[in-house]
Amino acid sequence: MDFALETDGVILKPGAKLQVQKCIDGNEFYHRAEIMSARQTEGGQTEYYVHFIDFNKRLDEWVPISRMDLSSLELPANEGKGATANHPSNKTKGQVGRKRKRPLKNEDSPNKTKKDLLKSPSLASISSSDAAVSIDASSVASGGMSKAQELEKLRRGGSMTQRLEEVSRVKNIDRIEFGHHLVQTWYFSPYPQEICGTTGDSTVYICEFCLFYFGSRQQLARHREKCTCFHPPGNEIYRSGNHSFWELDGHRQKTYCRNLCLISKLFLDHKTLFYDVDPFLFYVLTENDETGCHLLGYFSKEKESAEHYNVACILTLPQHQRKGYGRLLIEFSYELTRREGTTGSPEKPLSDLGLLSYRSYWSETIVSVLMSDAPYLWNDGEEARRDITDDTRYTISIDQISKATGITPEDILHTLQAMEAIRYRRGQHIIVLSDKHINDFEKNRKKNRLKVDSKALQWTPPVFTASQLRFL
Ligand code: ACO
Ligand code: ZN
User: Reduced to 3 states, what is the DSSP secondary structure of residue 283?
Assistant: First the structure.
């Protein structure tokens, strides 16, 4: 949208930058933002779509002029001068008593990749009595940063989008109605314009079972009268309690998978292929009741991945986030990988929330292997603990942890480094778990977490012929 609005003698154009009021987790502060677009609301008010510089695009939003500090306006370099500091609006804004809170400081954690560790057959040992590292494994995401600091750092890490033209995309849908939930969207998704309109303040109505989308509630209601779908298409490969996983083939269940990708794009800003679903399998998690199997989240997986990715995209619908489903999806993806007799890693780049969830899963899984009481049997039947020399020290290699968990040696090493659990002692690298790690592990074990029940998985890895993998 091309626009140049004159407000109080100040011209607001795309590319102009100024301080805009932002509220995160109840904290209000001003932050530099770039104007991307403008719209007229139904009430005739002008709103501006702004991107907060260095913040994740998820935090972009429509704001009225009352949230802008016009005195700080800077026009794009070739547009001449911006508003002067003496602009009349300066005083008005100054009087509202706003406080600029500085976002949390972030410091880069050292990222020491020790490739030699992966290659060397060096053994790692674990000591439960070492209290030298005071690191909280449950609340520390990386190198001594608290989860809040890490999140802040990631949030400020900017957009994950690889394509420049995507960066400028303005969110086109404000919210979706999905089952009983009205959900605020995060990013642009290429729904047809006749469904989402052009102003960006629309609601899209989605059938929670077949994922077809409509521009009005009436259209959805008419559809629901005819729709016979009460669960995802494809094979139910897992059922435990009231949760199921369904395996869908992007080639066979194309429409559903495309619609699923359209939804997931609303909450992911680095996905660019929505229609090319053929190369992927989709694993959909549902919660089942007498009214049907309700979508909670999913992950997609390449049918053949040269890079050994075991997850392409992963999503928990926002209304179900922070309840452990993301972790369940991740655990399930590794369960499949172990059944395949291999190891895998999620496709990069990870989003901020993706990284948090994976770090949490990786660290807890690795610690649980190290803390395992029973002699651990690896996939090939080899016992790892035969070198136990006392209660707290034993030898185990990163490769063995990898075999037991399906997590790649690289991800294991990075996780241990982020936990600050790798030490160099008496000429060899060792893993040292502090008392804190161990206490946190015990605490997490007591949490009533949803876990994958491997007995409930009825699945053999699908095999595709060369011609099935030739996607046209
Ligand atoms: N703030 C702080 N911690 C968080 C947050 C958050 N907003 N969200 C998740 N976490 C942490 C949790 O604390 C938890 O750790 P814990 O078990 O040690 O407490 C861990 O991450 C997992 O939490 P879950 O409740 O299991 O995860 P959730 O169901 O919320 O799903 C997911 C996580 C899938 C990443 C979700 O946030 C999401 O769908 N985000 C949008 C899409 C996205 O970014 N996907 C990943 C892209 S990368 C890729 O696709 C390969
Ligand atoms: Zn339907």
Answer: strand
Q: Are 345 and 358 in contact (CB under 8 A)?
A: no
DSSP codes of every residue in 155-166: HTT-----SHHH
Which residues lie near ion ligand 2 (Cβ < 5 Å)?
207, 209-210, 227, 229
Ligand positioned closest to the Cα atom of 210: 2
Q: Which residue has the higher pLDDT, 247 or 466?
A: 247
Cα separation, 167 vs 172, whole angstroms? 13
Predicted local distance difference test score (pLDDT) of residue 94 = 31
Spatial separation of the C-alpha atoms in residues 252 and 239, rounded to whole Å: 22
Please give the average per-residue pLDDT across 445-458, as a whole number.
93
**What DSSP line would sit under 110-131, residue for residue?**
P----HHHHHS---B---TT--
Mean pLDDT of the chain: 77
Spatial strand order of the sheet with 46-52 comes to 61-64, 46-52, 27-40, 17-24, 68-74
Query: Which of 74-88, 95-109, 180-194, 230-244 is the most confident on average?
Result: 230-244
Between the CA of 141 and the centroid of ligand 2 the distance, in Å, is 40
Which strand (E) or helix (H) includes residue 71?
A: strand 68-74
Residue 424: Cβ-neighbour burial (10 angstroms; 0-12, 13-18, 19+): exposed
Question: Which stretch of DSSP H or E encloses residue 416?
Answer: helix 409-418
Mean pLDDT value across residues 260-277: 82
In tens, the pLDDT along 139-191 reads 333 444 555 555 455 444 433 333 444 444 678 888 999 999 999 999 888 88
CA of 451 to the centre of ligand 1 (A): 16
Strands 61-64 and 46-52: antiparallel
- The 8-class DSSP code of residue 26 comes to T
Q: Tell me which residue has its CA closest to atom 28 in ligand 1.
A: 326
Is the separation of the CB atoms in 371 and 438 below 8 Å? yes
Strands in 266-377 per DSSP E: 280-289, 292-302, 309-311, 313-316, 345-346
Which letter does DSSP use for residue 323 in this model?
Answer: S
Distance between Cα 355 and ligand 1 center (Å): 8
User: What torsion do the CA atoms of 185, 234, 308, 111 make, to the nearest 10 degrees?
Assistant: 30
Torsion sign over Cα 239, 342, 408, 132: positive
Which tokens is 287 given? 């919660």
CA separation for the pair 202, 189 (Å, rounded): 13
Q: Is the pLDDT of residue 77 over 80?
A: no
